[in-house]
Amino acid sequence: MSAYMVIRCRISDRAAFGAYGKAAAELVAKMGGRYVVRGGGNETLEEGLGLRDMTAVHVISVWPNREAALAFWNSPEYTEVRKLREHCAIAEVALLDGLE
Questions:
Q1: DSSP 2-57
Q2: Of 19, 60, 78, 100, which has the fewest beta carbons less than 10 angstroms from its beta carbon?
Q3: Domains of the chain by residue range
Q4: What predicted TM-score, i.e. pTM, was given to this entire model?
Q5: Is 9 in contact with 57 (CB distance < 8 Å)?
Q6: What is the per-residue pLDDT across 44-54, written as a single tens digit (0 to 9) for each?
Q7: Which element (helix H / strand E) includes 68?
């Protein structure tokens, strides 16, 4: 069953965040994931959970299964990449099971 990693991120320094985004994208591809949403415009259609912040960006990656997504998330490589994001963005991350 596929798994989806959903990230909602508020970026405080776009230049610094660019280095994180590039490194993360390379690692996602290397470890078997692929992006289905990466930034782009967003529009809140129904509000109730604090999603109204239109400055936040959203990233969704799809993985072959939950184990592959967690292998990426917990890998020593991503632990290092994630450090690039620490001082330039605040993120919320969820892992969702797909239907396939």
A1: -EEEEEEEEES-HHHHHHHHHHHHHHHHHTT-EEEEES-----SS-SSSTT-TT-E
A2: 100
A3: 3-97
A4: 0.87
A5: yes
A6: 777 766 656 66
A7: helix 66-73
